[in-house]
Design goal:
- The chain is of the alpha+beta class and 98 residues long.
- Helices cover 26% and strands 29% of the residues.
- The protein has four helices and four strands, in the order βαααβββα.
- The chain has a four-stranded antiparallel sheet with strand order 1-2-3-4, sandwiched between helices.
- It is globular, with a radius of gyration of 13 Å.
- The two termini are 25 Å apart.
């Protein structure tokens, strides 16, 4: 597996570019688009493409609710989704938000 890094996507016009990968996990387009507008999006990528993404909505200053997590089929079962959720490569790791 190539080097994977996590990128926080902040700007709304950048978030919508990840819509298709998020639709792998939830085919309700309107809800996915709402989460994209309202949430924080984290993307696991290698040098060539996005491998997984996680959308979180802040629930309080200390917590965030995971609304969507998607991993490309060929990367499923390798722990990538768990790493995103657990925050091993998460910019907020150790800050109580994951």
């Amino acid at each position: 597996m190539n080097t994977i890094e996590l990128i926080e996507v902040v700007l709304p016009h950048e978030r919508m570019a990840y819509r298709d990968i998020l639709l792998l996990a939830d085919d309700w387009e309107e809800e996915v688009e709402r989460y994209i507008r309202e949430g924080e999006l984290y993307v696991a990528a290698d040098e060539q493409r996005v491998l997984g993404a996680c959308l979180m909505i802040p629930a309080s200053p200390e917590e965030a609710e995971i609304k969507n997590i998607a991993v490309l089929p060929e990367y499923r079962g390798k722990g990538l989704g768990k790493e995103i959720i657990r925050g091993k490569r998460h910019p907020r790791a150790g800050h109580g938000r994951v």
